[in-house]
Design a protein that fits this description.
The protein has 21 helices and 14 strands. It has about 600 residues and is of the alpha/beta class. An eight-stranded mixed sheet has the order 4-3-2-5-1-6-7-8, with helices on both faces. It comes from Urochloa decumbens.
């Protein structure tokens, strides 16, 4: 391959220096002066553990690289870096004040702390009383969904279906990717800044007046759930679709005592330090949203989980029905709005939930069925128009387009999926293999001038420290390998949102502070230890397949420079491991 469609290749880039810790790449250009302590720190990081190796993407002599990733503290001043990560500007100073107040509710406790459970959960009842929300919550017509995987997608599908049926909808999901207002949708749109501010201060002031030592201010998610109840009640939504935040039994959304219908999406191993170490224990927590006399649905589950769900449903006298994946033929050739084969499972559950809600509310006359073997028109419209960012989302980088490509194909494409459990990693890998293989087939079948474009696959990864990378990364890598997908480079970065918190004006630490990359280095060590991680170009073994970046903007800049200098190659970047990371990438791409 020759860069620029036939131009003479540039000299090969210099080899990377020896790796940090395992094989981390943290580099600083020699021409930039550094403070002595910072330089000493870098020297300690870069102590050679083995001989230097060429960059994995440099194995092909025609592939031009912009040089090794530079140390982030040398790329931009911290203030500029903070602004770069702020993303789309939010609005008023008052909104920033609101976000600051919200940020103060984020505790530093480990999420598994027993304070999240038991008697501490009973505080939710007091908060509801303080805000005088008992009756408003009782009046809401709720669809309540728990699960490990797919609960957000299921809620999104269900809301979209009922909105297409003409109802005023409220949707509460988590986490947000860029702006906290994403968690509160009214009629399919994020709540406006004006309304958010108004409802926030109403709740905040009442709680501040009535809380103290005995009853502290609610923690972050609990406050957001209370805010959702206030918003949906005052906005007089016809249906409130609520996604459980964590678990079910002790989740803040579980103050709803009589939902119209409940759903439990696919279960798997996640939040084990809180929910339990077995699928049975996890299922028991999820089953906590089931209520006596309330119809409930789930999807096919592992036997251990299903037996617990069925036992709990039997105790409550609930008929827990198992829903199969939606048959694509029922959509009359319309695609689902959320991509990936796994979404047919979530769509099937959403159809059952929406249909039951309509039946229990006496609104079945709202839907129109043309054929017995297809869904009602409104259901098809809702399923095909559903939108939930950060799940199986494909985003070409608008800044990197091939000048020689008349068809507007980007040389750099991001494939974003917030998978963060072993099971969802496998699903994510299958989706990535499917869409990238389809892209290649479509390009060849079109017989366009760009059909000889090569593709290079890169992983951009981070996960929270409560996750087990030795469970996540093997699932991702093995499933990709089974589908003949091999990453030529893995990039590990910290989430930028850990510095930004909530306010768009918040900045990362000052440039004199050292950023702790020990977690990213440990992720890299796990990656380098995996047998399938050493597949370089065309499956060839490579002695250097990963890098650690001190910040996400540096990783993005390196990818952009690499793609711009190799426009005959398409770089396909899978971003996964954390919805926070996915949100950070989207924020940068949309800036």
């Amino acid at each position: 391959m020759r860069a620029g469609g036939g131009a003479s290749p540039r000299p090969a880039p210099p080899p990377l220096p020896a790796a940090t810790s395992a094989t981390a790449t943290l580099l600083a250009p020699a021409s930039v002066a550094m403070p002595a302590p910072r330089l000493a720190h870098l020297r300690r990081l870069l102590l050679p553990l083995r001989s230097a190796a060429p960059h994995p993407l440099a194995a092909n002599p025609g592939l031009q690289l912009p040089g090794p990733p530079v140390h982030p503290s040398l790329l931009l001043p911290r203030a500029m870096a903070g602004a770069a990560h702020a993303g789309v500007a939010t609005g008023s100073a008052e909104y920033e004040e609101v976000l600051g107040c919200l940020g103060s509710l984020i505790t530093q406790k480990v999420r598994a702390d027993t304070g999240n459970r038991g008697n501490q959960w009973k505080l939710m009842t007091k908060y509801v009383q303080i805000l005088e929300l008992e009756e408003p919550i009782a009046q809401l017509k709720v669809i309540h969904v728990a699960g490990t995987k797919g609960k957000g997608s299921t809620c999104t599908f269900a809301e979209s279906i009922l909105r297409s049926c003409g109802f005023r909808t409220g949707l509460f999901t988590s986490p947000h990717l860029i702006d906290v207002r994403e968690r509160f949708r009214l009629d399919g749109l994020d709540i406006s800044e004006e309304k958010f501010i108004r409802y926030f201060w109403w709740c905040w002031n009442k709680l501040k007046d009535k809380t103290g030592d005995d009853v502290p201010m609610p923690a972050y998610f609990r406050f957001l759930a209370l805010l959702a109840f206030k918003i949906f009640s005052d906005e007089q939504v016809d249906v409130a679709v609520l996604e459980v935040g964590l678990g079910g039994k002790y989740d803040a959304t579980n103050v709803v005592r009589a939902p119209v219908v409940c759903g439990i999406s696919s279960l798997g191993y996640d939040h084990m330090q809180i929910l339990g170490n077995t699928l049975g224990e996890i299922a028991g927590e999820k089953a906590g949203i089931l209520k006596k006399g309330v119809p409930a649905y789930t999807v096919p589950q592992p036997e251990e989980a299903m037996s617990v769900l069925m036992h709990r449903a039997s105790e409550l006298g609930v008929s827990l029905q198992v829903v199969q994946p939606l048959d694509p033929q029922k959509l009359e050739d319309q695609p689902l709005g959320l991509h990936g084969e796994h979404q047919y499972m979530n769509a099937g559950l959403a159809v059952a939930l929406a249909n039951t809600w309509l039946e229990k509310q006496g609104h079945l006359d709202r839907i129109h069925v043309k054929h017995s073997d297809t869904l009602p028109d409104q259901f098809i419209k809702g399923l095909s128009s559903a939108c939930l960012r950060g799940r199986a989302q494909i985003v070409p980088d608008p800044q990197v387009n091939s000048e020689n490509d008349k068809h507007g194909n980007s040389s750099l494409v991001f494939y974003l999926d917030g998978a963060h459990s072993p099971e969802s990693m496998e699903t994510c890998a299958r989706w990535f293999a499917h869409v990238t293989n389809n892209d290649r087939i479509q390009e060849v079948s079109m017989e366009q001038p760009h059909t000889d474009r090569n593709s290079r696959k890169i992983l951009l990864f981070n996960c929270m420290t409560v996750r087990d990378p030795q469970r996540l990364l093997p699932c991702l890598l093995d499933t990709c390998a089974q589908n003949d997908i091999h990453f030529e480079q893995a990039l590990f970065v910290p989430n930028q949102s850990q510095y930004n918190k909530l306010g768009s004006l918040a900045s990362p630490p000052s440039k004199h502070e050292q950023i702790d990359l020990s977690w990213q280095l440990s992720l890299q060590r796990v990656w380098e230890s995996l047998p399938n991680s050493n597949k370089g170009l065309n499956g060839a073994n490579s002695s250097r397949t990963s890098s650690v970046f001190e910040s996400l903007p540096l990783a993005i800049q390196w990818l952009r420079e690499t793609a711009q200098q190799n426009q005959s190659t398409q770089f396909q970047v899978l971003v996964t491991g954390s919805l926070h990371l996915v949100g950070d990438v989207l924020r940068l791409l949309e800036k």
